[in-house]
Amino acid sequence: MLVIEDHEEWRDYLVDCLQDTYEVIEATDGQDGWGKVLSLHPDLIITDIKLPFIDGIKLSEKIKTDKRTRHLPVILLTALSSHDDQLRGLSSGANDYLTKPFNFDILIVKIKNLLAVHNLLKQTYSKRFTVLPAAVKVKNQESFMSGVMRFMEENIASGNLNVANLSAHLGTSRVSLYNRVLELTGKSPIELITSFKLDKAAGELSNTNTALAQVARETGFATPHYFSKIFKDKFGLLPSEYRHAHQKL
Questions:
Q1: 2-119 architecture in CATH?
Q2: What's the distance, CA 145 to chain centroid?
Q3: Which strands form 96-99's sheet, in the order they lie side by side?
Q4: Four-way CATH pick for 137-246: 3.40.50.1400, 1.10.8.50, 1.10.10.60, 3.30.70.270
Q5: Which of 116, 135, 164, 189 is the most core-located residue (most Cβ within 10 A)?
Q6: Number of helices (H), then strands (E), in the chain
Q7: Measured between alpha carbons, how far is 119 from 229 in angstroms, rounded to an integer?
């Protein structure tokens, strides 16, 4: 998640409290924060309202009106406590609002709730993609996603499976690719590629005795360590634990 806070002590406090549970990225002003939103696509954004360059309310409006980022949950933090201030914050499109000082346990619950809703929306979009072509003949969407899936299948074990090469292969801009993949699957292109690779790896682990390092290579991961880390992030188990639980041989 991304924490945008110009006050050093508050920023350090938030990062210290969150980093044991989440991967936390920091930004010190609204302009830096907006750049990191676009480049890193965090799962959730926590931002103070009073920021240099772009204040938190304007930043929230930018996030919620941009097709690339409008699905991202935003929590606003502020020392302003009047009803008008809260109304301004929530009217920017922010998902939630907390007044400083606040109980950290309340922030954690708000984060968990927003992430749960965010993940549910992703799953809903993914299911929509799964059933829509069978129910409605949307040839352009079918053709587009067929091209995406074919490219991923053909390049999974090579170093060519990335967003830039996928975009070039389909003859579309990266922005257009992002918008279409997000609309059809609920995932960004990089999330779709990573999920595809991890699902392939899970299948290998369930159905073969291939060494873990080889599974990592065959599914396009540079190192076994990185493979193990993001595999556990998705499935809640290390690859070896997943194999033990799901081995069908």
A1: 3-Layer(aba) Sandwich (3.40)
A2: 20
A3: 25-27, 2-4, 45-48, 74-78, 96-99
A4: 1.10.10.60
A5: 189
A6: 12, 5
A7: 19
